[in-house]
Amino acid sequence: MVDGNKNPVLTAEAAAQLQEGINLVLSRWAALRMAIENEWGGRDSAQKSQQLAQILFHSLTQSKEKVYIDDLEDVLDEFMLSLNTEIGDGSIEEIAEKLMVMHEECVEGNFSSINRLKETNTPSVSYVRQVTITL
């Protein structure tokens, strides 16, 4: 019996699959790719993106409480703002949903969405706008 208020525990294989899936999703997110390539978050933008993958993986696997989609949306939004990037194309919600689906599937030992990601090509660029902050 699974407690609805607790985050389910993944097997080692499922955790590895989820980590790979998170990396695949983030590597194909046009907004994140543009922010990294243009160093909108500074010279260490690529390193910051690796931290995002770790934060998301930790949130999905180490949290004692159940993780909700809006929790992931908040993490993604705050992270993109740290790269001076404001997302207005709905991709934050889309990425958060993909991550939740992958996590739920991994809990069940189902890696089909991750396998589909491995088999597909990278999508085209969405609308992204850099935020300029003046002090």
Largest sheet: 2 strands, antiparallel
Structural class: mainly alpha
In total, the number of domains comes to 1
Q: Classify the helix fraction into a percent range.
A: 55-70%
Contiguous runs where pLDDT drops below 50 for at least 5 residues: none
Q: Note the gap between the termini.
A: 53 Å
Radius of gyration computed on alpha carbons: 15 Å
Mean pLDDT: 88
Shape: globular
The strand line-up of the biggest sheet is 1-2
Strand tally is: 2
Question: Number of DSSP helices?
Answer: 6
Order of helices and strands: HHHHEHHE
What proportion strand? Answer: under 5%
Walk me through this protein's architecture.
By secondary structure, the protein is mostly helical. The protein has helices at 12-27, 30-37, 45-62, 69-82, 91-107, 112-119, and strands spanning 85-86, 129-130. The protein has a two-stranded antiparallel sheet with strand order 1-2. 25% of the residues are buried.
Topology:
Elements: H1 12-27, H2 30-37, H3 45-62, H4 69-82, E1 85-86, H5 91-107, H6 112-119, E2 129-130
Antiparallel strand pairs: 1-2
